[in-house]
Structures are given as structure tokens and as C-alpha cells.
Amino acid sequence: MSNDSIWSYAPELGPAQGQDLDLTGYTVVASDGTIGHVDRQADHHSMRHLVVDTGVWVFGRSLLVPVGVITAVEAGERRITVSCTRAEVKAAPRFRTDSETMDPEYLTAVGEYYRGLPGPVC
Q1: Which InterPro entries match (predicted)?
Q2: pLDDT grade for 101, boundaries at 50, 70 and 90
Q3: For the chain, which domains are there?
């Protein structure tokens, strides 16, 4: 299984590239509004991603977001910006259980979805 840019932090993000920065609790903002807060971050099968708690926006559902869609990390503001819209993130393959963060088939489907979106990172 190859690692590609959808699962890697962009080089310009500096400290976010490694596991040095704990993003738990950061607000995740799309190009058209807030998505939610980072519940946890994971790196299974060399596929780095965030599990985002959407609160009431998507009826308490969590979403899995590959780190390759992150365009900015503002540590002082505790905010992450992603290159996608809220609708694009919401339409990604549905995240149902924590075990999916370790399922290579599910992660591959998520990666293919985000790679297929228009835009420089997605």
C-alpha cells in the first residue's frame, strides 16, 4: 500500500508534519464554515488522518479527514483549515466505528474520494 499526498501533511505546514503537534481539540474549518473539532488523530497503514466530531452539524456523527486536505494549522487559534467544502467532507465515505480507522479498505475508499475532489489538495 503506497503512501501519497492525501495521507501526508503538506511541507509548508511545518510542525504539523510530524506527530509533534497534538491537534486534538482543534476546530476544523472548511472553505465555507466550521466542520467540528478534532476528536483524535491516527496514523494506521501510513495513512494519517483526523477523526472529527461534528457535533450537531451532522447529527453527532464523526468524520474521517485525511491530513493531506489540511491547508493551514494555526496553533495559537487552535484551528485547522481544510481545502474542501462542508458538503464535500459530509459526502465522504461514512465513518461508523473506530475500527474503520485501522481498516485499509475503508481508508483506501476515503483516500480515493478525497483525491477525486476538485482543487489543489483534494
Answers
A1: Bac_photo_RC_H_C, PRC_barrel-like_sf
A2: confident
A3: 5-115 (2.30.30.240)
